[in-house]
Amino acid sequence: MKRSKRLQRLCAEIKACTVFADVGCDHGYCAEYVLKNGLCGRCYISDISAASLKKAERLLSEYIAEGIAYSFCCAGMELIPKDADQVLIAGMGGEEILSILREGFLPERLVLQPMKNAAKVRKYLLEEGYSITRDYTFFDGKYYDVISAERCAAVREYDEKSVWFGYDNLHHPTQEFLDYLKAETEKCERQKHSAPTQVQAVEERLELLREVWNETSRNL
Fold first, then answer.
1. Does residue 201 register a pLDDT over 90?
2. Are 24 and 46 in contact (CB under 8 A)?
3. pLDDT average, residue stretch 25-51
4. pLDDT score recorded for residue 1
5. Nearest to residue 176, comparing CAs of 149, 140, 215?
6. Cβ atoms of residues 15 and 61 within 8 Å
7. Which CATH code, of 3.60.20.10, 3.40.50.1010, 3.40.50.150, 1.10.760.10, is assigned to 5-157?
8. Could you tell me the end-to-end alpha-carbon distance of the chain, in angstroms, rounded to an integer?
9. CB neighbour list of residue 136: distance below 8 Å, 6 or more residues apart
10. Which alpha helices (H) appear in the chain, and where do they start and end?
11. How far, in Å, CA of 146 to CA of 133, rounded?
């Protein structure tokens, strides 16, 4: 199976653990990576879509038969056993991810890929006592944020800009992040003309984007 860049980046963030859970697993590719590479002793997969879960179950049928992998058709973490010490939630909006965590449980380690509202996810994790260990933007047809967080890790200081844009993006910027800033700046410029009632908010966003561009482009 040829993985997309997005799946490769997600898999690269997963560490060895006792029990891994892929919430909203879709086709189960990340769970397959974890099992094939011996990164967990037990694996849980869940999806609200029975059709998607069936595809994941077929992919992981060998591990399910061996009693290593278990599947749950449910919303979020509703049926996921709470002994999972590392949880992946990817491909959902940030507010949906937060709803899943609030209604479920908070494991020792999280790998999250919010499709939007990443700042809200960062803020929540910090408020809940997590240390965000990896936090960056990459491009694979569109721009994605990946956030890895764990308890009992070295604490990195998050100021307001880090919450908005991601710690690694600001302290270890990549060309992909600079391209993201450029794309966001161009989008704001268009919004100034298409949404005149929001000009002040757009201008404030533009000023922040330019400030971050100036700071990070010097460090590339």
1. no
2. yes
3. 96
4. 46
5. 140
6. no
7. 3.40.50.150
8. 34
9. 145, 146, 166, 168, 169, 172, 174, 177
10. 5-13, 29-36, 50-59, 61-65, 94-103, 118-127, 160-165, 167-171, 175-194, 199-217
11. 11
